[in-house]
Fold this protein.
Amino acid sequence: MAEKFTQALVDRWVGQAEAGKQFYDSEAKGLRLVIGSTGGSYRHVGRINRRGGQYVTVNVGRADEVTLRQARTASAGVRLALKRGEDPRRPVSGVPTVKEALERYLLRDELSERTREFYRQCVDGPLRRLRDVPMDALDREEVRALHEEVTRGCGPYRANGAMRTLRALHNDAARTHDLPPNPVTRAVRFNREQRRDDAVPASDMPALWRRLESVECPIMRRAWLTLLLTGLRSGDVRGMRWDHIDADGVLLVPHPKGGRSFHLPLCSHLLAELEELRAFGSKFVLPSPRDLSKPLAGLKRNKTFPFNPHAMRHNFSTHAMEAGVDHATLKLLLNHASGDVTFGYVTRAHLQGHMRDAVERVATRLLSYR
């Protein structure tokens, strides 16, 4: 039960009360006097005013070192800090908010523009309620609940992507700030993800070719053909430039997903098809039909060619295996990272002949269904 403290009462309690006894001041909410084995001390107990804010205990001072008036003044300062959402036990360290951590993370050179855009969409979309929360104040229970909420509203893949973004931002901020354990790692149970079975079966490949050859626009037709015969991602195909293709028909992909530029030999059939587009006089191999000075804006399934662009990557991978391309070579063709130490010793630039043989082998198989 709280009672009004006086200096005389405090002195008496310190000298006579048994260790472990606590007294509560009715005049200063949250202030209490705790009796120990060697004296008493003032402490303030209160709740941090923010999401998931926990109750904290802040030492105000020993009763034999500060007066009651000084203790009440210090307690009022602690109470004000708690109201502002600060933890008085920790000095202000400039811990970034989720939004600030994002802006810092996006300065990394290896990130592609598509990756940057994806991170921005996650923070401004599913994670928007956490944008202004400091990284050291992320609550595990709230993060877990948010993942479940986004799963219900936007689907399991969107929810997982948002949480991976938050996890990456927290890990990056932890490089320079003393943060608690990553709340995503500790609290989130990621949704099970199943890879899409997008490869076109051999029995349907002749129909795919008929669909492809019915595309009237020569640029769009060759864009789909490039996806089919290279396994490249849509953005890498749309950004192809003539100065990225050398005299040997090797394409430089400067900004792929993951940020690691790579070279990919193009098959002879595709090179011949693309060569016919030089007549447009654009610096882009696949320019926009409406404005030849700009790259092709987008590739989407439509009535004429009802296939997902990324399905062509799945299709290329599957038919590459069917054509006898080994797993390591396929990783090179797809520019997939590998954790294999031995693979790290391979100099990719010295394998262009080997990769060209593999590309031609896949192209021969795909063209056989034409």
